[in-house]
Amino acid sequence: MQVNKNIGVFRKELIGFGLLFMFLTAFFFMEQIKTGPVMKDLPGTIVHVNTIFLSILIEAIPFILLGVFVSALIQTFVSEESLQKYLPKNPVLAVLPAALFGLLAPICECAIVPVVRRLIKKGMPLHIGFVFLAAAPIVNPVVILSTYYAFRNDLTILYSRMGLGILVAIVTGLFIWILFRNSDQLKWSKEEMVSRREDSTVKPKMNRLKQTLYHASDEFFDTGKYIIIGAFLASLFQTLLDREFLLSIGNDEIRSTGIMMGLAFLLSVCSEADAFIAASFNGTFSKTSLIAFLVFGPMLDVKNAIMLFAYFKSKFVMVFITLITVLVFGSVLILSHFV
Q1: Which of 41, 34, 58, 45 has its CA nearest to residue 239?
Q2: d(CA 29, CA 37)
Q3: Residue 130 above 70 pLDDT?
Q4: Quick check: 48 and 260 in contact, CB under 8 A?
Q5: Model confidence at 320, in pLDDT bands (50, 70, 90)?
Q6: In this structure, how many other beta carbons lie within 10 angstroms of the beta carbon of residue 240?
Q7: Which of 39-53, 149-163, 200-214 has the lowest mean pLDDT?
Q8: What span, in angstroms and rounded, lies between the C-alpha atoms of 147 and 279?
Q9: I need a labelling partner for 192 at 20 to 30 A (CA). Which of 29, 51, 108, 201 fits?
Q10: How many of the other CB atoms lie within 10 Å of CB of 243?
Q11: Is 282:290 a contact under the CB 8 Å cutoff?
């Protein structure tokens, strides 16, 4: 039994180091790869997909590392008792500080899912975790600054993004509380179930630095495969989407809002850079459809949707996706009558 476990661990480490080697090779030798004999013989579309895929990974990896280290620190230093002590006891009143906590925790949507999963495992109520998940990538101070610079000539877009982001996150959290209360919606692997049993028994404490590094490494390789899949799908969408066709059908408020929300999901641009993408559509799509792009994308895109389905029960994730989509779409259409 122990031999099989050691083989499994070795296989995971081998795959992980292999992926890391591929990433570093692509990162440092990108130009040589693009101009090499193999790439010259490939169709331009494949080269373009590869370029976008690597750019998404390079953009996401630093934030993923931030997320997994925050998750590891939570696992090592934050106890269930301390969470219960500092969280507001009233489940309804607790949603507001959860929505604003992103001001203190600069985490974008690339890294938020493993952090929220770890907090929920530690005892954070399900609805509070998902308020934080939806709001943090929008009220992130870096995101606020990037949106300000991208739309400094029209700050109503910045204010609308912040306001709608917080509002949609809070309403989503309240719906989750009503529908699911504190039911367990996490998916637990066999290894995690064993770990839970081991944590409940008395065992010698590992050095906290080693614990943090161990959990961060494990989390990175666990999350990494979903980021790779999500980045690949997003690169396909970015390459194959016909933007001219989208522009031709995006003339009215309802269609343009739907199109920009769809683009936000498919393009999977990091929330700390998406304002500049949205600004490139300024004048072509309506102001409120740009706001829809800026609110919906950080809450839900290809990358974090794949991670949500991997870490949470499918029915719950479908309810969350439906809530976010309906609330963002409806609130933006209401906003269009005022801005």
Answers
A1: 45
A2: 14
A3: yes
A4: no
A5: very high
A6: 11
A7: 200-214
A8: 9
A9: 108
A10: 12
A11: yes
Three-state SS for 220? helix
Q: Show the CA angle centred on residue 187, arms to residues 182 and 189, nearest 5°.
A: 135
What angle do the packed helices 253-267 and 208-240 form, to 10 degrees?
130
Give the model confidence (pLDDT) of 266-316 as tens digits.
888 778 778 888 887 787 788 999 999 999 999 999 888 999 999 999 999
In the three-class reduction of DSSP (H, G, I as helix; E, B as strand; rest coil), residue 87 is classed as coil
Distance CA 79, CA 118 (A): 11
Q: Which pair of structure tokens corresponds to residue 15?
A: 């795959």
Q: Is 88 helix (H, G, I), strand (E, B) or coil?
A: coil
Judge contact between 72 and 219, C-beta under 8 A.
yes
Whole-number Å distance between alpha carbons of 274 and 301:
12
Q: What is the pLDDT of residues 143-202, one digit of tens each?
A: 888 889 889 888 999 999 999 999 999 999 999 999 998 799 998 766 655 555 555 444
Closest CA to 324 of 184, 182, 133, 185: 133
Residues whose CB falls within 8 Å of the CB of residue 299, separated by 6 or more in sequence, listed in order: 109, 133, 134, 137, 138, 165, 168, 169, 324, 328
Nearest in space to 187 (alpha carbons), one of 117, 125, 119? 117
Q: How far apart are CA 269 and CA 212, in angstroms?
A: 29
Please state the pTM of the whole predicted model. 0.75
Residue 106 has a CB neighbour count (10 Å cut-off) of 18
